[in-house]
Design a protein that fits this description.
Radius of gyration of chain A: 21 Å
Helix content of chain B: over 70%
Largest interface: A-B, 104 and 101 residues
Order of helices and strands of chain A: HHHHHHHH
Mean pLDDT of chain A: 88
Shape of chain A: globular
Oligomer: heterodimer
Distance between the termini of chain A: 28 Å
Number of helices of chain B: 8
Distance between the termini of chain B: 12 Å
Low-confidence stretches of chain A: none
Number of strands of chain B: 0
Number of domains of chain A: 1
Largest sheet of chain A: none
Order of helices and strands of chain B: HHHHHHHH
Chain lengths: ~190, ~170
């Protein structure tokens, strides 16, 4: 429903401002926008297919599981309670590796499974500290290969679509650190569960 | 960076082949999933780019940018990127639409275009993620998840503006 409100709000804003400023052909603009959406989708479709294929390859070759084993010590430190339950830990690891590899849509199912399992074990209505930490990690987007954005840059004629990688790594690294730092601070102000 | 992508593809494909994985078949199957993904996001992109184009043609985008420019300057973010920063936590496809619009208007290699790309690459759809995760698991109170995630987003935006210009 959120998107419905957002959609109506955007239309109201556009009509209101267009009326005030006496902007020209808004109908033409709307149609041009719709057309550009198809160009955009087609422009990035090739890269999306290539990287989705890459994701399946990482899964089948067991390389993603290997990455998960590499990450286990970090996960154990961030999720001390979940670490004791292999099922939660497996879901957490699948969630984090999918995020790292830029397979956003593959991250959601194990992420939800991890929160469900944490909730069953914690037997509480509210989010536990570790659930909050998990969603903060997911919303901060730690990505090694931001493939969709690179595809978008490529389709618009960027000289070197992947040359934003160092900036993306540093920015998402800082944003994760800020999220974890804020978590450590904020949890003091909230009641237990 | 030019060699990174083919090198990553080669290393992973060769390792997988060494483990007797049907590399080509896996890539093809993933490609079909990618097409499904394109099919899923296209209708949303149509609606959102229609709205973005209307907002721009009507002057609303410019008014919004001017209104919020002082706050953006405080965080070191170019004001042109504010619409993107505002929509980013709410909707992934809307952010993609706004980001594509900025990159096309300013050029993908301009400061604004690069910053938009880094912002898109280093942040996530915060509200969507939190509501999906907690709703699916039946968690009632999200406690400090939203403020902490928004602090992470803001940091990501400011860092993107800083690094996109320098790296």
């Amino acid at each position: 429903m959120t998107m419905s409100y957002l959609w109506v709000a955007m239309l109201v804003l556009a009509l209101f401002c267009g009326g005030l400023s006496g902007a020209g052909d808004l109908g033409g603009a709307a149609l041009a926008g719709a057309g550009r959406a198809v160009e955009l989708a087609l422009g990035i479709a090739g890269s999306l297919c290539l990287w989705s294929g890459f994701g399946v390859l990482l899964d089948r070759s067991g390389l993603r599981a290997g990455l998960g084993r590499l990450l286990a010590p970090v996960l154990g430190r961030l999720f001390p309670t979940a670490r004791r339950d292999p099922e939660t830990l497996g879901a957490l690891s699948a969630n984090l590796t999918a995020n790292l590899l830029g397979l956003g849509s593959a991250a959601t199912p194990p992420g939800i499974a991890a929160v469900r399992r944490m909730k069953a074990l914690a037997r509480s209505e509210g989010a536990t500290d570790e659930m909050c930490r998990l969603v903060v990690l997911n919303t901060a987007s730690v990505q090694l290969l931001p493939t969709t954005v690179a595809a978008l840059r490529g389709s618009l004629g960027a000289a070197s679509p992947f040359d934003i990688l160092p900036a993306v790594w540093l920015s998402s690294g800082l944003s994760v650190l800020a999220g974890l730092g804020a978590s450590a601070l904020l949890r003091r102000f909230w009641k237990k569960k | 960076m030019g060699l990174l992508v083919p090198a990553v593809l080669l290393v992973v494909s060769a390792l997988a082949l060494g483990r007797r994985v049907d590399v080509y078949g896996a890539l093809l199957e993933g490609g079909r999933q990618g097409l499904e993904l394109v099919k899923t996001i296209l209708p949303a992109l149509v609606l959102l780019l229609t709205a973005v184009e209307l907002l721009r043609a009507s002057g609303a985008m410019e008014a919004l940018t001017r209104l919020l420019a002082p706050a953006a300057e405080l965080a070191g973010i170019p004001p042109e990127l504010l619409p993107l920063a505002l929509i980013r936590p709410l909707s992934g496809s809307a952010a993609l639409a706004v980001g594509a619009d900025l990159m096309a208007a300013w050029g993908p290699d301009s400061v604004v275009g690069r910053t938009a790309a880094v912002m898109l690459g280093s942040t996530e759809t915060t509200f969507y993620t939190i509501s999906v995760y907690f709703a699916a698991a039946g968690v009632k109170r999200s406690r400090w998840a939203v403020p902490a995630a928004l602090i992470a987003d803001l940091t990501g935006f400011a860092a993107a503006a800083f690094f996109a210009r320098r790296l």
